[in-house]
Amino acid sequence: MALLKINLYAKAVMDRILKDHQIVVDIPHGEAWLRDDEERPMILIAGGTGFSYARSILLTALARNPNRDITIYWGGREEQHLYDLCELEALSLKHPGLQVVPVVEQPEAGWRGRTGTVLTAVLQDHGTLAEHDIYIAGRFEMAKIARDLFCSERNAREDRLFGDAFAFI
Prior knowledge:
By secondary structure, this protein is an alpha/beta fold.
């Protein structure tokens, strides 16, 4: 006989929703939201599953200003981890200001993107980051390293680096 485990908290929440017919949500918290400055060039950095956040920021930024200069760096261990690369490449055909830079750490034969880490790719591509808005999504360790490297080596403005990790590190 299988036992059904009941999550009492979840049950209480659902009972309340069914009774009150409303949900009160208190958001946002953290630093992961698109700023209104649509003129500054933007760099989006997504490590692994951080892509979902970066994609949301990207689509909103393109809807607000389809001609904005945006570079998205998406890194993964292997090409198969860049599961939505075709969508990004299609977007770059519609938006001439969008540059897509896929990066894998362990490339297979025939890989057409960059090899290494997303942070190394950004450093290789930019002599200065002083004029950029930089959005970072991924492991907190990556965000900390990015902030340290970009500010010290590429003159990035710390007040123009955005991501939830920065509320905690």
